[in-house]
Structures are given as C-alpha cells and as structure tokens.
Amino acid sequence: MAVDQLSLVFSALADPTRRAILARLAAHGDATVAELTGPFAMSQPAISKHLKVLENAGLISRARRATARLSHLEAKPMREATDWLAEYRRFWETSHERLDELLAELQQSPTNGANDG
Amino acid sequence: MAVDQLSLVFSALADPTRRAILARLAAHGDATVAELTGPFAMSQPAISKHLKVLENAGLISRARRATARLSHLEAKPMREATDWLAEYRRFWETSHERLDELLAELQQSPTNGANDG
Questions:
Q1: What region holds the HTH arsR-type domain (chains A, B) (predicted)?
Q2: pTM here?
Q3: DSSP 3-state assignment of B54?
C-alpha cells in the first residue's frame, strides 16, 4: 500500500500530543523542542519523535536559528483533509435536520392538543 | 496515553482503503462485506479488519439482515474532526490571501511600468 499524503496527515493528527503541539504553535508561534516539551510529561526525545511525524506529514517545517531548531506550523495540508471531510457534511447535516424537524413536531403536538376541544 | 475518540477517528481515516469504503457507503448505501470487498484486490478478512477499525471509531455501524451483515455509514464523528481542523483554517487562508495579494501586485507592476514614460 502506497502511503499517500492524506493518510500521513490523518495519521499525524491521530495523536493528542501531536494535536496539542500544533495548537501550541498556532497560539504562540514558532517554538524550540525545549519550549514544546515544557507543557508535557514527556522527554525531549519523545517530543522530537512527534515533531518528525508532523514534519513528515508536512504539518510543520523546521529551521535552524542560532543553536536552536524552530518548529513552524504549516496548516495547508489540513485543507486537503478538510476538503475530504466536507464531502460527508451532507450526511451528518441531514440527520441533524431530521432531528430538528422531529423536535419541531414534538414541540407543536402538545400545544395543538391543549388548544383542541 | 488514553485513546480519545478524535484520535480513533483520525486514525481510521489514515488509510486509503478505509476512506474508499466510506466513499462507497456514501455513494451506494449500506453494503455487505462481500460487496465492499468487490472493488479491492484484498481478501474478505482483510476488509473485515478495516470495517472493525471503522466501527471502533464510530464511523460505521453494522446490523445483521437475514444472513448478511450490513455496514452503514455514520458520518457524525467526522463533524468533530472537521471542527478541530476548522480552528486552523485562518492559518491556511491567511497564507492564501497573502499569495493573492502578491499575485495582484505582480500583475499590476508590469502594466504600470508599460504605461509609465
């Protein structure tokens, strides 16, 4: 099985630590491995492994600045993931609309009943 | 590490066969394992394994009808995944807007230059 880019992206996102790293980069901007390790009960090598997975999926880029290596959020691959998911929006929205209709009917029925007779 | 629902969903989507199964259920409705195996160069047990991963992530439900077991698309967990990704939309849109601005500038410059003098 060829590993396609979309699979790499979904796979990289399938971990709460990696999602937290992306959230941190989004909120506070570029960061070193040491800065990214701070909030987690994890070793720096463990965080480095997660960064490699994110980099491999194209979700971060890394650049050396002086003695540190800065991670930078690259959100574009998430767009393809979002586009893929958007194809299924009508399925969850349809069931949601049906629920809304059902609730509207239920809310109407007792009132009608009370006014009758 | 606790395996959260969102990680299960992203992990289930990180495979082209599983995504193709979901696309098939979306396009043609509920299907048996045999029907889902048809389009793939894969054994029925291999497809069954993929169905278990999808079921575990809440992306399909399975119901017995007569002698067959039908898989049914459950798109709702994709909504949470889409919501998570939506938080990052501004990052890919911002860079896209910047590119649009840059292109507009580039397209304007030669025209201005040609009209000058």
A1: 1-93
A2: 0.79
A3: helix
Ramachandran area for residue A90 (φ above 0: left; ψ -120 to 50: alpha; else beta): alpha
Chain B: residues touching A (Cβ < 8 Å): 1-2, 4, 6-11, 13-17, 19, 22-23, 26, 73, 75-76, 78-79, 81-82, 84-89, 91-92, 95
Amino acid at B30: D
Which one of A76, A84, A88, A93 makes the best mutation probe of the B interface by having the most chain B beta carbons within 10 Å?
A: A88
Query: What is the model's pLDDT at position B96?
Result: 59
Q: What is the pLDDT of residues A29-72, one digit of tens each?
A: 999 999 999 888 889 999 999 999 999 999 999 998 888 899 99
Look up residue B110 and give its amino acid: P
A5-75: CATH topology is Arc Repressor Mutant, subunit A (1.10.10)
- Kindly list the residues of chain A whose beta carbon comes within 8 Å of any beta carbon in chain B: 1-2, 4, 6-11, 13-17, 19, 22-23, 26, 73, 75-76, 78-79, 81-82, 84-89, 91-92, 95
Interface predicted TM-score of the whole assembly (ipTM), two decimals: 0.79
CA gyration radius for chain A?
23
